[in-house]
Design a protein that fits this description.
Elements: E1 7-13, H1 22-32, E2 36-42, H2 48-55, E3 61-66, H3 71-75, E4 80-81, H4 83-88, E5 93-96, E6 102-105, H5 108-118, E7 127-131, H6 135-146, E8 151-155, H7 159-172, E9 177-180, E10 190-193, E11 217-220, H8 229-236, E12 240-242, H9 244-258, H10 266-272
Parallel strand pairs: 1-2, 1-3, 4-6, 7-8, 7-10, 8-9, 10-11, 11-12
Antiparallel strand pairs: 3-5, 5-6
Helix pairs in contact: 1-10, 5-6, 5-9, 9-10
């Protein structure tokens, strides 16, 4: 039920057809009796800076979830961001702070890493490859560094993206070995697809799956389908893996705390979600 007391969490991105958050958050809000709704809001890149400022003029705004393609742009539009968001160079959650200041944080990486650890994946002291150094890939790399990995391989076809992320990581984690320029997964204990490759049929693979060690743990960020072609190929090699939606469900409790709302577990969220895959 929506009424005059309903608070809004704006889910901002473009396009909106792949948005899953409303089907996860809203059933949970209903179950715990919170009068808050997540509402999809499509904003094209050219309109986004003005739109973000305008949406926080609403008197019933609780916060905003930020998704593609705005996570990187958001950082430069806020009054303050968390250290994780600063390293990632991207932000996916915004709230109002004191005196109307806009505060941002980044939870993609936290959710991804939390999911790996809950599955028994060892991160301390291992070598990890992250392919894709945009908003989500950068966030995952930042959280992997915080989790104590020994080496990060970074690859992105945009040289400025991978080199910029490498520099930010090494400023905060000077002992971390960071290598750039190759998406060859051979020899890595954990391999991450941090790109949107896999959202559409016929997308190329983010790397040569045949080069992934069978003992490696493989992580995906694409959520349009549960088992992407990349994960199916990794599974065929015998790899353990994490589906894209796990990252989402694992990070939602942190989002809820950020917005000052009742938190829960990933299992509870999955139980009450109306999420469907096509």
């Amino acid at each position: 039920m929506i009424n005059g007391n309903t608070e809004i969490i704006a889910h901002i991105g473009y396009p909106t057809h792949a948005f899953k958050a409303p089907m996860i958050y809203n059933p949970w809000f209903k179950k715990c009796g919170v009068n808050v709704k997540v509402v999809p809001m499509g904003s094209k890149p050219g309109d986004f800076p003005g739109f973000l400022k305008a949406v926080f003029q609403l008197s019933n705004i609780r916060g905003a979830l930020i998704t593609m393609p705005h996570k990187i742009t958001t950082v430069g539009l806020l009054d303050s961001v968390s250290p994780t968001a600063a390293i990632a160079g991207a932000c996916n959650a915004v709230r109002l702070g004191p005196n109307g200041a806009l505060q941002g944080d980044m939870f993609d990486g936290e959710g991804f890493v939390r999911g790996l650890l809950r599955k028994g994946c060892v991160l301390q002291g291992v070598r990890v490859l992250v392919v894709g150094c945009g908003g989500v890939g950068s966030a995952i790399a930042a959280s992997l560094a915080a989790a104590g990995v020994a080496e990060l391989g970074l690859f992105d076809p945009r040289e400025e993206s991978q080199s910029g992320l490498a520099q930010r990581l090494q400023r905060h984690y000077p002992q971390l070995v960071v290598k750039t320029g190759s998406n060859d997964p051979a020899g890595y204990a954990v391999v991450v697809n941090g790109t949107p490759m896999g959202m559409d049929p016929g997308d190329p693979m983010p790397m040569d799956v045949g080069r992934i060690d069978a003992s490696a743990f493989v992580g995906e960020v694409v959520m349009k389908s549960e088992m992407t072609a990349f994960l199916q190929a990794a599974q065929a090699r015998g790899c353990r893996f994490q589906v894209g939606s796990d990252m989402l469900f694992e990070q939602i409790p942190a989002y809820l705390e950020f917005f000052g709302l009742p938190s829960t577990t990933p299992e509870e969220l999955r139980a009450c979600a109306t999420l469907q895959y096509s």
